[in-house]
Structure formats: C-alpha cells, structure tokens
Design a protein that fits this description.
Layout: E1 2-5, H1 8-15, H2 19-35, E2 41-45, H3 47-53, H4 55-67, E3 72-77, H5 84-98, E4 102-106, H6 113-122, E5 127-129, H7 144-154, H8 168-178, E6 196-197, H9 200-208, E7 226-227, H10 235-244, H11 253-268, H12 277-289, E8 297-307, E9 313-323, E10 326-334, H13 337-349, E11 360-368, E12 379-386, E13 391-398, H14 401-419
C-alpha cells in the first residue's frame, strides 16, 4: 500500500514539490512496484478535501496511479468531514471520469464513517478499508463489523467465507480484550444491546415473532437476543427471559407474577437488572426453585481505610462467614476497600471452592442515585466478573458504596459457582 498526496496544497506545502512532479512520482513508484510483480494499492490521502479544492488535480492523481498499474486507488476522507451524499456524488464522478477501480477509506469525525463507506459502495467502489470495532486515530475509522454485515446481509454480496459471519461477535469482543478496551454494548450487530428488548409491547411481540422487532436474526452474526427485565417490561419479558437463561417457567402465571413483583419492589429501591443478568438469574432461580442459591452464609464483614501521615492509604478487609459447616475468618489488603473485600472473600472461600480461583473482576461501575443530599444518596454498583470462558454482571444497592459493592460481590461469587456447576450447600 502506498500513500499519495492528492490535495494540491499538501503537495506544495508538505512535499514541497510541484504538482506535475508529484504525478510523476506516483507513476514511477507504482510502475516500478508493478514491474516487480507486486499488487499495488494507492491511498489518495486527503482526497475529498483535495477534490473540493481542485477536482481536476485530485482526479489526475487517481488517473496516474491507475494507468501506472495500481490494483485499487483508494479515496481517503482523511479529515473525516464528508457526508454520505457528498461521498456518493464524488465517487460516482471519479469512477466515470477515470475508469479506475476505486476503494474507500473513511474516518468517523462526523459519525458517518460506516454510512460514507456504504455510500461509496453504492456509487461503485469495490474495495473498502475499515478497522475492527472502528478503532483508529481521533474518533476512529469506519467500523469493519457493521460494514461487513451490511455487505453480506443487506447488499447480498459474498465477502466472507461460509460461516465466518457467525464469528463476528466473538471476534469483536476478542479484539476488544486484546487492546484492553471494554466492548461497546451499543455497537451495531455485535454489541450486547444490539438485540435487546425491554418495553412491554416489544417483549410481547417478540414472543410471537422475533422478526417483528429485529432487523436480522442475531445468530447470523454470532449474537443473541436478550430480554431486559424491568418494571416497564412486566410479565411479557419474564418468561422469554427465563427461557434465555435456561429456566422453564412452564407458563406459571403465579410464579411470573411473583417475579414481576420482586423486580418492581427492588427497582423502587434503585436496583436495575437490565445490565445485571446474573443477579436477575439468581432472583429468578430463587423464586422458581423455592430457595436461594446459598454457597456461604455471611456472619459479618468490614473494610478499613487507614490514612497515613505520608499521604498514602492502607485498605484492609475482614470477612467472617460459614461455608459447608465451617466458620471462616479471612483478612486481606487491597488497592482500595472494595478490592480488599474481594480478596478477603476469595481467601475465605477458595480452599472450599477452588473453582473461584478462575474468577476475575473485570469492570466496576458506581452510580449515585438521586437523593435530597449528595452524601446521603443511594449508591448503585454494577460489577462484571469473568471466569475466562465468559462474563456476567451483578448489581448491589445501598446507602454507601462499600455495602453496595459487597452485595454485587456476593452475587458475583454465587453466580460463578452456579456457572461452575457447584451444588449449593445444604
């Protein structure tokens, strides 16, 4: 891939050469590489801004690269300022005037990178440049995943090997893990909220026919439909949500009613289960099975933050609990009071439940709910935990952040043991 200047001002100010000399350099470089048997892709940097300033010169650069043997000439919206209608018009004109095989490279500065990429395809471009999850400089590049999904599922173009599209969600999340960024929950096609349904009307209709409120089958891209549980969703979402979690409610209206009432009652206190599926599953199983999943019983816990004269802080937590008939007291230090509690709970339970060694807290969110006075407000904590094979989220609500965190931690450990197939203590 070569980068060529196609904006006349960049040629004169950045390269400090003449417009004709730039064209000669493009021809010579492309011709030489083609003579060596190389496939050459030429990225015309700042093409759209250059086209706006001097359309004939911008097209001359494209023509020079194409006639010298370039496989594809890529039109780059380097500053990311174009809109779809503008892109479509320019690409169509350049294609008609040069006959070149064109590609598109879009930046997302206007939030239109994916739309601009598809607009270029509509105008005749046959090559697109995108990045996984849209990662890139400034606000990012055109996102590969919605572009590929649109080409396959909306345009009917065969751009991937058979079965590859179903790997898209997994790959998106794996790449986010590699770069140590939290996957966007609202990313089209692959986000966990891409096929999530909450409102009662939606949930009721989804039970009849999922296509009524989904533009594709989520399994086509390796994603899954999710039913979000809330007071607003009501009964209509509980039964399909149970099915999603592997719990057959068997049309038990009384059971569903109890679950709805529990959800309403807890939402009034500040709980939310839309982003805490694990906590909701524990609640649902408790109602369906007639007992809570109890792997340990907490006697007490405490967290101490010590302010030292040198300005540093020491964080220590102590947990007292019963597990399998044994009373356990464990103390641990951490980077903060919540981390200390997490470590103390792990120390207390790992010898009895070695499955917990795989658990890792991967995300922690705190939200201060509305109150009359800031320091007296209710706190909601959401914790995401991983066992290496998957992630789950739990919620806690209390008048202070440590107590709310403890609730979420308890649910996280309980759900982790449930996932591992451990039977609850009698």
């Amino acid at each position: 891939t070569l980068v060529a200047k196609s904006h006349d001002r960049h040629v004169e100010l950045a390269l400090r050469t003449t417009l004709d000399e730039n064209l000669e350099m493009v021809r010579d470089t492309v011709s030489h590489l083609c003579s060596q048997g190389r496939r050459v892709f030429v990225d015309c940097e700042h093409f759209f801004d250059g086209y706006r300033a001097n359309p004939e010169y911008a097209k001359a650069v494209v023509r020079a690269a194409w006639e010298a043997g370039a496989d594809v000439v890529v039109l780059c919206d380097t500053n990311g300022g174009m809109l779809p209608a503008q892109v479509q018009a320019v690409v169509a004109t350049v294609l008609a005037d040069t006959g070149a095989r064109l590609g598109m490279h879009a930046q997302d500065d206007t939030g239109c990178a994916v739309a601009n990429t598809l607009a270029a395809v509509d105008a005749g471009a046959t090559h697109v440049q995108c990045t996984a999850n849209g990662y890139g400089e400034r606000v990012g590049n055109s996102n590969l995943f919605p572009v590929v999904a649109a080409l396959e599922l909306k345009y009917g173009k065969k751009v991937l090997p058979d079965g590859a599209l179903r790997e898209m969600t997994r790959i998106s999340h794996a790449i986010a893990e590699v770069v140590n960024l939290t996957p966007s929950t609202h990313q089209p096609y692959v986000g966990v909220s891409a096929f999530a349904h909450k409102a009662g009307l939606h949930a009721s209709a989804i039970k009849v026919d999922p296509d009524l409120y989904q533009h594709i089958d989520p399994e086509q891209v390796g994603n899954t439909m999710r039913m979000l549980v809330s007071d607003m969703a009501g009964r209509a979402s509980i039964e399909p949500k149970g099915k999603e979690l592997g719990i057959d409610l068997g049309g038990d209206r009384e059971l569903v009613g109890r679950v709805v009432e529990r959800v309403k009652e807890r939402e009034l206190k500040g709980y939310t289960y839309e982003a805490a599926d694990a906590s909701f599953e524990l609640l649902l199983r408790e109602e369906a099975e007639g007992r809570a999943r109890t792997y340990f019983q907490v006697e007490s816990w405490r967290a101490i933050v010590e302010d030292r004269p040198d300005g540093t802080h020491a964080n220590e937590a102590t947990v007292k609990l019963f597990a399998k008939g044994e009373r356990i007291v464990a103390t641990a230090e951490g980077n903060g009071p919540v981390n200390a509690l997490d470590r103390a709970l792990r120390v207390a339970l790992e010898t009895i439940y070695p499955q917990l060694a795989k658990l890792e807290l991967v995300d922690y969110k705190v939200r201060i709910l509305e109150g009359k006075h800031g320091t007296q407000s209710t706190t909601r904590v959401l914790i995401s935990t991983s066992d290496g094979a998957g992630e789950w989220s739990t919620v806690g609500v209390a008048e202070n952040v440590i107590a709310a965190s403890w609730q979420a931690l308890e649910d996280a450990y309980t759900y982790g043991l449930l996932r591992a197939g451990v039977e609850p203590a009698e």
